[in-house]
Amino acid sequence: MQENIDRVLIDRHTIAARVGEMAEQIAADFSKVEGGLDPVHITIVPILTGSLIFLADLIRRLPLMMQIRLVTVSSYPGKATTSQGIELKGQLPEDLTGHHVLIVDDILDSGRTIQYVTDLIAKRGCASVRSCMLLRKRIASAMNTHADYIGFDIPDEFVVGYGLDYDGFYRNLPEVVVLKKEVFA
Length: 185
Ligand code: 5GP
Ligand code: MG
Prior knowledge:
By secondary structure, this protein is an alpha/beta fold. The chain has helices spanning 12-30, 52-59, 112-122, 140-143; strands at 5-10, 42-48, 66-68, 71-74, 87-89, 100-108, 128-137, 149-154, 159-160, 176-179.
């Protein structure tokens, strides 16, 4: 696995520090929300599978009452490195009436995934919906898509690690990396 890495884009210490900052910001913002369910708690909606590692690190730094409702979406099946259209897998959370929702995803690219999931979630009666992404590509489609919290802006390259995959592999790499060109050949 290590031999396929071209270079490390974001190392584990930088990720950890930034996730801590994001958690502080999110905790401060959500501690001010009013209305919805009493007592106020938040509902985390992670978009699987790419958000898994980020999610685990982020929520352990959020000292808030929370529940988790999983959503699974596929847009880069198998060896695709460009979006092939979004497909929802399985069920959406049933009823979110009065919930303050935080959608968590790994990376903002075309913006279609977050737009699609936000629209579906917003129709379920939430008190509020916000979104949080670890990464955002420095391209127009991503920069022009609304997201409330962004970890890092990165160049327009296909990255893996820290939850992000290529053909299902590399999610367990602790850093965000770029793979060697030969890997895609
Ligand atoms: P969007 O819908 O914004 O185009 O893409 C979001 C989804 O596409 C992400 O949740 C992720 O699963 C996948 N994706 C986009 N860019 C990359 C990338 O550079 N690497 C990997 N591994 N997945 C990506
Ligand atoms: Mg994803």
